[in-house]
Amino acid sequence: MLAVGTKAPAFELPDQNGEVHTLKEYKGQKVILYFYPRDNTQGCTAQACAFGDMMPAFREKGAVIVGVSKDSVASHKKFEEKYNLPFTLLSDPDLEAIKAYDVWQEKNMYGKKSFGVVRTTYLIDEKGIIVKAFEKVKAKDNPAQMLEELE
Fold it and tell me: 10 Å Cβ neighbour count for 105?
């Protein structure tokens, strides 16, 4: 996980519509950048839907929400449409941002070791500095936790 106080790594990734986004375009706004393992899984769906439900409160506090996983643009589009998600989902199949933000880690599930995305959320300030970092977050609780962090 990246340390609080460090400059957030730049990225250039396509969203669910195939439009490319960069961290630079969010300058002047607070960014909740969350990394999740996979579209349409129980935890990831709960987290995304909760962020979506709380979107007006995040906007009120001047924050944008950006989700990142290694799923394809097409997978993100289906996920967005199925759950009516009102925020950007970035596709990172080459693990560029995922590795830059140090969320690609070894996992141990039922004694089997493999690499994957560790659910992590960063709060990046208006100048592109990481001001909060949370690793291994609880999917359904994370959106409310992040809203509190904006207080």
Answer: 15
Q: Contact at 8 Å (CB) between 130 and 4? A: yes
Catalytic annotation on 49? no
The whole-model pTM stands at 0.95
What span, in angstroms and rounded, lies between the C-alpha atoms of 148 and 57? 10
Interval 65-102: pLDDT, tens: 999 999 999 999 999 999 999 999 999 999 999 999 99
From the candidates 44, 48, 85, 133, give the one annotated as an active-site residue. Answer: 44
Amino acid at 32: I
Alpha-carbon distance 105 to 112, whole Å? 14
Contact 126, 4 (CB under 8 A): no
In the chain, alpha helices (H):
42-53, 55-60, 73-83, 96-100, 142-149
Closest CA to 142 of 19, 53, 71: 53
